[in-house]
Amino acid sequence: MPDGRPGHVRSLMPGDRDALVHGLQSLSPQSRVRRFFFDKRSFTNDQLFQLTHPDGFQQIAFALEVRDDSMDQMVPIAVARMIRDPDRMRTADLGIVVVDQWQNRGAGTLLLRSLAAASLRVGITRWQATALADNPSIAAVLRKTTHIERRRIDPSGIARFRCRILPDAIDPRRAPRSELSTAV
Fold first, then answer.
1. Residue 41 to residue 143: CA distance in whole angstroms
2. What is the DSSP letter of 100?
3. Are strands 59-68 and 73-85 parallel, antiparallel or unpaired?
């Protein structure tokens, strides 16, 4: 991690279901609205299944964990996923969320670098993402791993991004070698 703390990027797995539920509930209302466009308080069973059963090709979902010394275990601090667009096989929808206390500390950038590396390995060269127009953090983190080709704000205040993943923005020392697990 940028602060020197060891981190770990790994694929989400079925056993992460409870951590995802807890993670969503631990987000501030503002963070939930910024990620989901409303104060989302729970996932559906289908959403949890999709997040925890990525196939590594159509969908990749990663968690970034750090050691919590008070609990003597690794805890997830950020989740990112991409889902391939079935009509444009080289494009995927991107989603990312970072727990409040780790926002603006480099966690999102590290996680997106890993997701970008994995995306490129399976032929994804572009991401599309949506965010509230008043959320500058998403544009900032996207600029570190992609070239933003288009940013359009619709009348409801939603910014829609189309980005080309930049291979040279991925630090190979931090990108996972497989979709299963890697140390950061």
1. 29
2. G
3. antiparallel
